[in-house]
């Protein structure tokens, strides 16, 4: 039987080529966007897309997550699972279409109601199809469609922004059309239409999937609150210009989310399919040790090169955004660790625990945003609130997760890593005396502390392959 570590590495590599190839293109497009959108326009476009992202779990009833998880079960009727997801999204899309006038009536979204609905609906359909493809184990196709989707989005942006000069509408419309085109291709080229069987629909299956999915609706909303509520508060309390800078600053740590997201997509598949194996706990332990090591090294590097990254990625108008990157980088490290711990709940189908922990993070984030943004901290207050909420949720999940899968998380190393990256971020933002020397020392210590589990994991895989 194929070694589980080799399988995990293979899937990560495949997803890495596809996902990294596609997402890095989006990342590099930040400079393009900042050239054709003012800080205010970029801030408004960001609010529109983030609002649509909030509506996605509501329109879909969280069913895409259930489709992925239930389709992974060995005895699953995959046609029934996919059809249940499709019917749910079509129903949700019809209901939300009736709410378009409501969005148009809101001053901030006036004229954007149809765009918000279309963004939400086609994103749900796209997600349903690619997650079903991933659950079936077609990792290469999943990766290819990721690259294709991004390529279409970029090409449309190049048409809509500099040529047609559609501004905010063009920015959002490019994503909508990309999702619609890729969804159509999935149905035609991968014959997903053959997986539609209305006669196979089962009330029992639908109920089971909804019981799993429904707690994930507020869970996703709460994570949205944790990730995005600060954008609204920064816009309201400081202004759209400040949010434009903050949105660009957030793009840099997105590299870390990208890096962890590639692995997590492969890991979730392995964590569920390898369940029941006697080495399952050891598998969790070794993978987590390597994962957290990689996240701290990457986060440390992002903080160190914050100024250089903004110079490369954005125009001079956005340069001040570098000062928000160090804290956001630390926040993103813990966001990734929180996601990893969520795989424990995925394996055990404990969606209610995902709900409770995400709710805790959202409440903490809102309270801290209200307290910190109006102070001298300003926009960095929002970044600190984001870090604090993720950090606390990680602690809760780390403790609670041991009830289901008890594995060694190396708490001593986690504490030292956390202290080091916090010192690094503090010195970088305030530009304290000898801050550059502090950067060098912290980078060296982080690397020495975390290099071993990564190298050990690589050597283990290579040894087993030999």
Task: Please give a quick description of this structure.
By secondary structure, the protein is mainly alpha-helical. Helix content is 81%, strand content 0%. It has 2 domains: 37-214, no CATH class; 229-466, no CATH class.
Q: Measure the end-to-end span.
A: 15 Å
Cα radius of gyration in angstroms: 22 Å
Going by helix content, strand content and strand pairing, the class is: mainly alpha
> Count of helical segments?
20
- Any low-confidence stretches, pLDDT <50, length ≥5? none
Molecular structure report:
The protein has two domains: 37-214, no CATH class; 229-466, no CATH class. Helix 14 (280-304) runs antiparallel to helix 20. Helices cover 81% and strands 0% of the residues. The chain is built from 20 helices and no strands. It is mainly α and 466 residues long. It starts with a helix and ends with a helix.
Which key terms come to mind for this protein?
globular; 0% strand; 466 residues; mainly alpha; 20 helices; 2 domains
Set down the secondary structure blueprint.
Blueprint (H helix, E strand, L loop, with lengths): L3 H25 L1 H7 L2 H22 L2 H9 L6 H20 L2 H6 L7 H23 L3 H25 L3 H23 L13 H11 L2 H22 L2 H12 L2 H20 L6 H25 L1 H8 L11 H24 L2 H22 L6 H23 L9 H20 L4 H31 L1
Helix pairs in contact: 1-8, 1-13, 3-7, 3-9, 3-11, 3-12, 4-5, 4-7, 4-10, 5-7, 7-8, 7-9, 8-9, 11-12, 11-17, 11-18, 13-14, 13-16, 14-16, 14-19, 14-20, 16-18, 16-19, 17-18, 19-20
